[in-house]
Design a protein that fits this description.
The chain is an alpha+beta fold and 345 residues long. The protein is 18% helix and 42% strand. It has two domains: 150 residues, Roll (Diaminopimelate Epimerase, Chain A, domain 1); 169 residues, Diaminopimelate Epimerase, Chain A, domain 1 (Roll). The longest helix is centred in the middle third of the chain and has 15 residues. Pfam families: Pro_racemase.
Length: 345
């Protein structure tokens, strides 16, 4: 037991995407902001991300992790660092929802019956969250990121040997997301296409990463493209409600999200608004290939460093699936060594 430490985690799923929320066992990281703390973790202690997400302790096909930290911005209730197999996104929707659910339902933040307002500090900025609560349970979560989403480039093309010319747009929403109209590449975004979507996406990312990368006006170069988002056709139901299928692929996990996911949903809707195909304020139900869904709408357009920036609100629900301790035993050869021991309590 001398070499063993424990990391306290709560697992929460939103739409089938599983989020491992770290609530204890990690010392406070250096840095005056969550962005600085994330940068420290990425540079000096990436072993935490690896032990949470990689086999043998991880391995779920749609697993993410979030480390709760002290915020650096006055008025924020908590900070959180998002960790995925591809690295460290600056903003994430379902990670936001899951973190708020874990904080409220475990009592880390005070829950009151009815509407609860929470402000989280992500590496990419503040996120305003409204959580509806009943009988000690968070029944729904709505978030609004204060860092705008924007279309970085439109009507791009890449020549893929197996598929010919593929057209796409790039939208920034916490990371850079290529957005492809699903019908253009022959997808209906149904469960039976999962294997084909994964295969196509892997080839697409390899091709796109040979091209010049977009640069964020504030956060700068963000590295290789790691995601592909597929947008279905906008549908109108008998009750005049709107829906749209959304599928997000992530590399190097080489799988698709179980949920339509928050920032991919935002990316699709912002792209539609930018093309004049969707009105500001129109609520759209985004649906994954697994049938799970979120509600999203683009609420405001504003100038963002010379580009049209957009703010969005996304609503979903989540459920705690487990509360556990991850055992860190450095005699285990499969325990990551990258700075992990230095940040354990």
């Amino acid at each position: 037991m001398l070499f063993m430490k424990h990391i306290e985690v709560v697992d929460v799923h939103v739409g089938g995407d599983l989020h491992r929320i770290v609530l204890g066992g990690i010392a406070e990281l250096p840095g005056s902001s969550v962005l600085e703390k994330m940068s420290y973790l990425r540079a000096h202690a990436d072993g935490l991300r690896r032990i949470l997400l990689h086999e043998p302790r991880g391995g779920h096909p749609s697993l993410f992790a979030d480390l709760v930290v002290q915020p650096g911005t006055p008025g924020a209730d908590a900070g959180f660092i998002i960790m995925e197999l591809m690295g460290y996104p600056l903003i994430s929707g379902t990670n936001t929802m899951s973190t708020v659910i874990a904080l409220l339902e475990t009592g880390r933040l005070t829950m009151t019956e009815g509407t609860n307002q929470v402000v989280l500090e992500a590496p990419g900025g503040l996120i305003d969250v409204t959580a509806e609560c009943e009988n000690g349970k968070v029944t729904s979560v709505t978030y609004k990121a204060n860092t705008p989403t924007f279309v970085a480039a439109s009507d791009l093309v890449v020549d893929m040997p197996s598929r010919g010319v593929v057209r796409y747009d790039i939208v920034w929403s916490g990371a850079f997301y290529p957005v492809i109209r699903a019908a253009d590449v022959g997808f209906d975004l149904i469960r039976e296409e999962e294997e084909d979507i994964v295969s196509f996406s892997k080839s697409f990312i390899e091709a796109v990463n040979q091209l010049p990368r977009p640069v964020h006006p504030v956060f700068g170069e963000e590295g290789p493209i790691s995601f592909v988002v597929y947008a279905g056709e906008l549908q109108t139901g008998e009750d005049d409600s709107s829906s749209c299928r959304v599928c997000c692929y992530e590399s190097p996990r080489n799988s698709v999200c179980r949920a339509p996911a928050g920032v991919p949903s935002t990316s699709v809707l912002v792209n539609l608004v930018n093309k004049g195909l969707l009105d500001l304020g129109e609520c759209v139900r985004t649906v994954s290939i697994f049938g799970t869904s979120l509600q999203a709408n683009i609420t405001r357009k504003l100038d963002y460093h010379g580009k049209d920036g957009f703010e969005a609100m996304v609503t979903g629900s989540g459920w705690i699936t487990s509360k556990s301790q991850i055992v860190v035993d450095f005699s285990d050869p499969l325990t990551p060594q990258e700075g992990l021991e230095e940040i354990l309590n």
